[in-house]
Amino acid sequence: MVILAFFWLALLLRSRPAGRVTRLLAFGLCAIVFSWSMDFMDEFIRMPSTLIWHNWLESMPIPIALILLSIGIYHWHQEEIAISAQMVKRERYFREHRLFDKLMPVGGGAYLKKQLKLSLAESKKNQQPLALIAIDLDDFNVINRLYGIKEGDHILQLVCQLLLLNLRDKDLICRLAGDRFVILLHDTDEAEAKQLSQDLQHAVASFAYRTQESQQRVYLTATTAITMAKRDDSDSLIKRLNQLLSQRKQTAAPVI
Ligand SMILES: Nc1nc2c(ncn2[C@@H]2O[C@H](COP(=O)(O)OP(=O)(O)OP(=O)(O)O)[C@@H](O)[C@H]2O)c(=O)[nH]1
């Protein structure tokens, strides 16, 4: 039990930034470690039953720990509400850090599929239109080749932030793969989706990046495709969106 409590403490200190919540939880866990250690030592060292202070040392830390942990968890709850507000446009229905992208703070392909299943069910239940936009950077391999993968990674992260800035709170963006993002547009008709996809294309075209090493200007363009959810399942919907995007890639006119 003592080892378990030490393990919780180590996880807490390694994963959380310093601050009030961490302090309260850490002191609470320390009190538990102390109390359980005293209890554990009893197995090896026999104390005379007249030693009242020893019993106190063993039992008193637990109520103190519970009070500290309760206050800590309450403030943690407040903190989580604030963090959830910042995660709008990046998560909906559920949080699953293992399905989040490694490079940028949005869900990956698996997260998209799970979200899409839930969104399809919701749009059917509420009889609301559900639109999808795919946005893919043009010739991104050239950026990697000219400026290197590190610079390419940085550009992808900034493009993701740029797209987030241009979305509405009810939208959800995920990185499907590489330089391709998919946006779920809840309760959105085709005309609105078209407008939003043009806005995103223009935002990417207006973005000018200066490379960190050679200070060169890099300009980007992106191709988009839109589809409305009909009677498809999530897999066929993503497949159709990818096909539409490939067609658009072959015929796309440059963004003005
Ligand atoms: N820096 C960086 N590059 C990536 C990442 N994921 C994929 N890529 C690169 O993105 C490029 C995507 O290539 P393609 O799918 O051919 O796309 P493209 O070069 O943009 O060409 P089109 O889509 O046809 O315009 C490849 O060169 C990948 O190596 C990543 O996480 N970081």
From TrEMBL:
EC number, as in UniProt: 2.7.7.65
Top-level class of the enzyme under EC nomenclature: transferase
Swiss-Prot/TrEMBL catalytic activity: 2 GTP = 3',3'-c-di-GMP + 2 diphosphate
Recorded superkingdom: Bacteria
PROSITE patterns: GGDEF (PS50887)
Record protein name field: diguanylate cyclase
Taxonomic classification: Bacteria, Pseudomonadati, Pseudomonadota, Gammaproteobacteria, Thiotrichales
Gene3D superfamilies reported for this sequence: 3.30.70.270
GGDEF domain span: 128-256
Organism listed in the record: Methylophaga marina
CDD domains: GGDEF
InterPro entries assigned: Diguanylate_Cyclase, GGDEF_dom, Nucleotide_cyclase, Rev_trsase/Diguanyl_cyclase
